[in-house]
Amino acid sequence: MSAPVLKHTTAPVVVAIGADQRAEGHIREALEAAGFAVEILSRGDVVDAVERARRASAQAPVIAVVAVGTSRADLRRVLRAGASGIVIDGQLDEALVPTACAIIAGQLVVPPALVRQLAPRALSFREKQILALVVRGYTNRQIADTLFVAESTVKTHLSSAFHKLETRSRAETAALILDPVDGYGLGVLPIAESETEQAA
């Protein structure tokens, strides 16, 4: 199926490039051929480019072009910064113009593979229990005593949770859980209350 083409229109769209910036000419040519008035921002990382695009053209929707392997955290930052669509740099030919058409119509466009990546990874009940106590400042030994498990079990579940949350320390994990935007607080913090009440 050929890409949709908008005829006799100059719908504005801003492209923030966080991938191979050598693709800028190809991106401009493809969008202008489809009838879009294009502005491209490619200096700095893609989140910075999206933020500058929102400031420069508040009314024009922004497409973020990202590299394969962009982290989940950066993808979330791109959307929070104001991107209306995300295109993977290896899919420009088939996805760029359809994405531009969709965001002009008011849609949010994220490739299916990235939707799965953006979704929070499910934590097990035990991981939530342990993380809830980490947020409260408990040591591994205190968590083990509270939950009546071995300290090695606590370490195993913490390691698994760190991997799922893409964090590297207790402090970073606690900050993520408490984050009002990206946090897991609603799924973690209530457990702390029940566990500490049982331990009291």
TrEMBL record:
**Domain HTH luxR-type residue range list:** 116-181
CDD domains on file? LuxR_C_like (cd06170)
* Entry-linked InterPro entries: Sig_transdc_resp-reg_C-effctor, Tscrpt_reg_LuxR_C
Would the keyword Manganese turn up in this protein's UniProt record? no
Q: Which domain of life is it from?
A: Bacteria
Output the Pfam families linked to this UniProt entry.
GerE
What SUPFAM superfamilies does this protein map onto?
Answer: C-terminal effector domain of the bipartite response regulators, Inosine monophosphate dehydrogenase (IMPDH)
The identity of this protein, by name, is: Response regulator transcription factor
Please name the source species.
Solirubrobacter ginsenosidimutans
> What PROSITE patterns is this protein classified in?
HTH_LUXR_1, HTH_LUXR_2
A GO biological-process term: regulation of DNA-templated transcription
Q: Keywords assigned by UniProt?
A: DNA-binding, Transcription, Transcription regulation
Task: State any single GO MF term.
Answer: DNA binding
